[in-house]
Write a structure and sequence with these properties.
Length: 259
């Protein structure tokens, strides 16, 4: 989610759905909130202001001073008269693939919807510069219709990434699992005008990384995007490793006994 004034992805999604007849309410951050994860504002007030003349006339809109997750909480508990049928987050300007979902404010906002028991979808366009959001918005419209017919499990969200190419060049849609994204040269060391050292988080992503099971990249969202597919990855908030839980049982019942 990005600043209201420049959030072309949010506007395209909201307006496309409103024109299609959906009842749309937007509550989004009032400034750039990338990589905020599932952060919540606890130590200062959260403010929300009505936004006019930016979205389609049928779209009710608030700009919120908090994080993406704050926006969903505020919408559900303070601004909306009744719970929505769906929580949609995005369309984010930039990919949310693989392990990036752990840092993503867009995905975390959708996860907040799931925590509150509402079917949720996170949507991202995999470029910071490509400006054509309409194919992603149109896909979201079709996906919503499908989810009405085939409801999502209560604890699952869909993380959708759309390749940054013209609609005619999209290869199709594929269901994927999370890949791994790592970065090289993560910090730039700089000097400010007063001669003091500071660091700027930067780095280039390593796109193709095999999963932990081996070298097979088939079925990974990171690979499918390179092949120009729209990726749909089911996620849930239960981070428990079932394999690890089984292995820990083998440690034995006396593991914590004093010597």
């Amino acid at each position: 989610m990005t600043t209201v004034s420049f959030a072309l992805g949010i506007r395209t999604l909201a307006n496309t759905l409103a024109i299609a007849g959906h009842d749309v309410t937007v509550v989004c951050p009032d400034r750039e909130r990338s990589a905020t994860g599932h952060g919540l504002t606890l130590h200062k007030p959260i403010r929300a202001e009505v936004v006019e003349d930016v979205f389609h006339p049928a779209v009710r809109t608030w700009a919120c001073s908090g994080t993406p997750s704050d926006c969903v909480k505020l919408a559900l508990w303070a601004l909306l008269e009744s719970p929505p049928d769906f929580v949609l987050s995005g369309i984010n300007h930039g990919a949310n693939l693989g392990t990036d979902v752990l840092y993503s404010g867009t995905v975390s906002a959708a996860m907040e919807g799931v925590i509150e028991g509402i079917p949720s979808i996170a949507l991202s366009l995999t470029s910071f510069t490509f400006q054509e959001f309409l194919p992603a918005a149109q896909f979201a419209q079709r996906l919503l219709s499908h989810c009405h017919k085939y409801p999502l499990p209560a604890t699952m969200l869909l993380n959708v990434n759309v390749p940054a190419v013209p609609a005619s060049e999209i290869a199709g849609v594929t269901m994927t699992r999370l890949g791994v994204r790592r970065y090289q040269d993560v910090f730039e060391k700089r000097t400010d005008p007063r001669g003091k050292t500071y660091y700027w988080l930067a780095g280039e992503v390593v796109e193709e990384v095999p999963d932990t099971a081996g070298s097979d990249v088939a079925g990974l969202d990171t690979q499918a995007i390179l092949d120009r597919y729209i990726t749909v990855t089911p996620l849930h908030f239960n981070l428990t490793s079932l394999e690890g839980l089984t292995q820990l049982q083998d440690w034995g019942a006396n593991f914590w006994d004093r010597p």
